[in-house]
Amino acid sequence: MFDHPNPDEIFNLNIWWSINAVIFAGLVIIALLPSTRASIKDHLRQNLWLGLTLMLCLIWLIKAQALDYLYLHLIGASIAYLLLGARLTLLALGVVLVVTNLTRHESIIVWGVQYALVVALPIFCAALLHYLVNLYLPKRLFVFIIVRGFFVAALGMAVTVWINLLVLQYLDLAARIENNDFLLLIPILLAWGEGLLSGMATALIAVYRPHWWYQPQVFHDV
């Protein structure tokens, strides 16, 4: 996750606050949508939202600092998308981001950019990949667990980390990626961890709690 103790050194503070305002307004609109309110009123979805938000708060607080302005952590966007859908996941991870920032006493000014890079981006990647896999691959339990559970989460994380590194490089906050072997390994390592966590959770839920999925899954074979 991107962070900077002195964001005014990069952009004018008005720009940072404008980004925050746009992101916050978008979340308010999403929260007020009738479909969102209907989902959150469902007791099962409500319990899943609260439980997943709490669990992801704990996961996000386990961080490693790779660069001066980049912290590495798992996100959980793919499994959250499968359980909550896109709108509730956007809200859940927004709460997780706020809690993480307050707990670690990080600058709230960069919250909007953080949200775009580590919440909206991985959720968009997960939603797109899940859609493509569901459209083109057979509806089998094995495909669901291995591809949608593991590989979608891993690929989405890899893309997210790469884009975050490119943003840092564009802002001159990171060494050139092509000259740093460690930075090349970061997306692979995080992708493996994200895929493993998501894959195990997907396997357990698919077998023992299949009614938890946001969209009911019908499998034609194992």
UniProtKB/TrEMBL annotation:
This is Uncharacterized protein. It is found in: Cell membrane. Coiled coil: none annotated. The lineage of its organism: Bacteria, Pseudomonadati, Pseudomonadota, Betaproteobacteria, Burkholderiales. It is a multi-pass membrane protein. One of its GO terms (cellular component) is plasma membrane. It comes from Formosimonas limnophila. InterPro entries: CbiM/NikMN. Keywords: Cell membrane, Membrane, Transmembrane, Transmembrane helix, Transport. Its main location: membrane. It holds the Pfam family CbiM. GO terms for biological process: transition metal ion transport. The chain crosses the membrane at residues 15-36, 48-67, 79-102, 109-133, 145-171, 183-208. It comes from the Bacteria.
